[in-house]
Write a structure and sequence with these properties.
InterPro entries: DUF112_TM. The structure is a single chain. By secondary structure, this protein is mainly α. It has one domain. The chain has 21 helices and 2 strands. The radius of gyration is 22 Å and the shape is globular.
């Protein structure tokens, strides 16, 4: 009852005209930043921090949260329409969203994304409000062995389950892990795979890899098939709204994606990329089991689930930030710095010492989710009209925006060169039928797996048994074994039943 009273006070503060304006500005700015590849919400919040010192802390943090939420959805727009995710967390959305757009279902893909984002945000924020202490306990319970098990689970699930061909999936995963090794080893200081180039000491940015493989790779692949498809052909945007069948196919993925995404926002270094891949894999496996899979051709489930997982992660990432002072993303880390600039230290005492601010911030998350829905859903058919642009102009625009986005991130010409090199790799993967997802998950989770494995080995003084000593790790390995064994066993049983009959 006390929680409801505090939340009501938070709504009273957040619904003042001034704070509503800051929330609206944050959501709109975040959506705009999310659309542009390479910028990201972390950069937007970092640029805003010095400009907001004259504001009341409540208004400033409501705007930061709006940027955070808006940016996570904004990345889905270009992922669906142009196969160029504005955020790394939206890369999975492109796998099915872009084929939907090419087949004339862009408005449905955009609607599934924004409605999924709204549902996930509302559910996740509600759980944050009422179950923050439980989530904080989950955050502190993860050890090195658990993180390593989580990475292995994501590797195998993506390479062997999401990818249709296991050998090709593992090959793509190996490529991703190789890219992740480039640069200085953080623990030993060894220089790896830089070929004497000082510009590669920091490694290859995930922005470069994501935009290169998905955007530049797609452009090169389309150019290679230009003789068979006229360059001036346009893509019809299709009917403007989701049908009853689309709703029926989307509501379960929205809920499953939300359930998958919420724990990863709480886990330190969990990130929003892992649950989006896992959600995509789960929906693809379920569709294959039903025998009606459209995955690879534009399955709406492949947009609905990952986008819900993405935004559920965003909401719950505020739990370790506010309750422990522990950021789980780059944007959360910058918000932590902003708290400290205002003379506040996130942690267990923050809910007591700055109660008015915290509850107004939590209330603004509900309001921001509603604003996000209201300003994006009606514009889905309008966004989809971008696809009326002739393909030769459309893909030229993709190359320009991708190049500018990557260059803007670090003002580095080397990153632009790497962008096109990675794009050539993406083209070859498409040309010879290798899956893209394992490459991306290898780049994202490779450093995490390596670091946590070394930490676990150091703690146990080389005893491999430490990797299987945690209940969380054992559960993850158990789920992985089930996921690998059950589908082939069911397939074999069906084959025997068919032969017997």
């Amino acid at each position: 009852m006390e929680t409801l009273s505090l939340l009501a006070n938070g709504f009273a503060e957040a619904l003042t005209p001034e704070n509503l304006l800051w929330c609206l500005i944050g959501v709109v700015l975040g959506t705009a930043v999310g659309v542009l590849p390479g910028l990201g919400t972390a950069m937007a919040v970092a640029l805003l921090v010095p400009l907001t010192f004259t504001l009341e802390p409540t208004g400033a943090f409501i705007m930061f949260a709006g940027v955070y939420f808006g940016g996570q959805f904004g990345g889905a727009t270009t992922a669906i329409l142009l196969n160029t995710p504005g955020q790394s967390s939206s890369m999975v959305t492109a796998f099915e969203g872009y084929p939907m757009a090419k087949s004339g279902r862009a408005p449905q893909a955009l609607a599934a994304a924004v409605i999924g984002s709204f549902i996930a945000s509302i559910i996740a924020v509600t759980l944050v409000v009422f179950f923050s202490p439980v989530m904080v306990d989950l955050a502190v319970s993860f050890g090195p062995a658990d993180f390593f098990a989580l990475a292995i689970f994501a590797f195998v699930a993506t390479a062997a389950i999401v990818a249709g061909n296991k050998l090709r999936g593992l090959t793509s995963l190996g490529l991703g892990l190789t890219i992740a090794l480039v640069g200085i080893d953080e623990q030993s200081g060894a220089v790896r795979f830089t070929f004497g180039s000082p510009q590669l000491l920091d490694g290859i940015s995930i922005v470069v890899v994501t935009v290169g493989i998905l955007a530049i790779g797609e452009v090169l692949y389309v150019a290679s098939t230009a003789g068979r498809t006229p360059a001036t052909q346009t893509i019809k945007p299709g009917r403007p709204w989701m049908s009853r069948r689309d709703w029926g196919r989307s509501w379960r993925p929205w809920l499953r994606g939300t359930a998958l995404g919420m724990p990863f926002g709480v886990i330190p270094a969990g990130g929003s990329e892992i649950p989006t891949f896992l959600s995509y894999g789960a929906e693809r496996g379920l569709a294959r089991r039903r025998g009606d899979s459209e995955f690879g051709k534009g399955a709406i489930e492949g947009v609905a689930g990952p986008e819900a997982a993405n935004n559920a992660t965003t909401a719950t990432s505020l739990v370790p930030l506010l309750g422990l002072g522990l950021p789980t993303s780059a944007t959360a880390a910058i918000m932590l710095g902003a708290f400290q600039q205002y003379g506040m230290q996130p942690g267990p005492l923050l809910f007591t010492e700055e109660s008015d601010l915290i509850w107004a911030l939590l209330a603004s998350l509900f309001i921001g989710s509603v604003i996000l829905l209201l300003i994006n859903l009606p514009f889905a058919p309008i966004w989809a009209k971008l696809l009326r642009i002739p393909r030769n102009y459309l893909y030229a625009g993709i190359v320009v925006f991708a190049t500018l986005g990557v260059y803007t991130a670090k003002s580095s010409v080397v990153d632009v060169v790497l962008l096109y090199a990675v794009g050539a790799l993406g083209f070859l993967l498409r040309r010879y039928g290798f899956p893209i997802a394992p490459v991306l998950i290898g780049v994202i989770l490779g450093p995490l797996a390596e670091t946590e494995l070394r930490r676990a080995m150091a703690i146990s003084q080389g005893d491999v048994g430490v990797l299987f000593s945690s209940p969380i790790a054992l559960v993850l390995y158990g789920l992985l074994v089930v996921a690998l064994i059950v589908p082939p066993a069911v397939k074999l049983a069906r084959k025997r039943q068919t032969v017997g009959s």
